[in-house]
Amino acid sequence: MNPQSRPIMSPDAALFLPSPYFDNDPIGPKIYFFKNNSFACWDVNEEKLCEGYPKSVRASWPGLQEASPDTKLRAALHVPAWGSFVFFLFENQKELAVWDLQQHRLLDDRLNIDMVLPGGFTDGDFTPVYCELSDRTPVIYAFKGHDYLKWSVGSQWPAQLEAGYPHKTAADWKDGLVLAPRTAVYLEWTTRSNAHSNRKIYYFMGDLYLRWDVPSNTRNYRLDIVAGWKGWPQFD
């Protein structure tokens, strides 16, 4: 195979949920990875791909791909304080598609990104990720090029852009990020060491991923996706 035609491993979007979203998924927290026309379910407790995945996005998330035809997903943003809504971002789009987890459906109305993340980057794609800081304060980061933004999160949207941003990514995420990742997801592992923090942000870029420890604000490591996520699937 021509190296230039080899598929890039990074997912288009990643969604963490504290419990399974589909009936046949095993109990416990899950990460749903979206790429192209497929999505996969990662079992956080067992640290492996759930059986039967990848599956079709169109079949399991009806209307989502049709919300922006022939356009890749850019991110899936879920803020627990805001309830059952997931905000899906698409490449080169200024509107969010809103999925209601309780109703298992895409809402009819789209939201302009500024209605949820006001004062953000004015043009081009960016990568948002929800996170809880060392004191459990909820925030949203967004990365674009060499810069990033930070919003504080209340009980309902919109988030509040913090003063003084954007900052240079390389200055604040030392030995970790320089350029914006393709996508990112935050989670708290449930089965790892009690002696260390289990609260991480995973940044995906190309064929690599970066694990960032949130409480210490330090990089743990950077690895190949296929090496670090055993059983990483082939997406359609």
Provide a descriptive summary of the structure in words.
With 236 residues, this protein is mainly β. It has a single domain (3-228), classed as Hemopexin (4 Propeller). The chain has three helices and 19 strands. It has helices at residues 57-60, 169-172, 225-228, and strands spanning 13-17, 30-35, 38-43, 48-49, 55-56, 73-78, 85-90, 95-100, 105-106, 111-112, 127-132, 138-144, 147-152, 160-161, 167-168, 183-188, 199-205, 208-213, 218-224. The strands form four sheets. Strands 1, 2, 3, 4 and 5 form a five-stranded antiparallel sheet that branches. A hairpin with a 6-residue loop joins strand 6 (73-78) and strand 7 (85-90). 34% of the residues are buried. The model has no long low-confidence stretch (mean pLDDT 93).
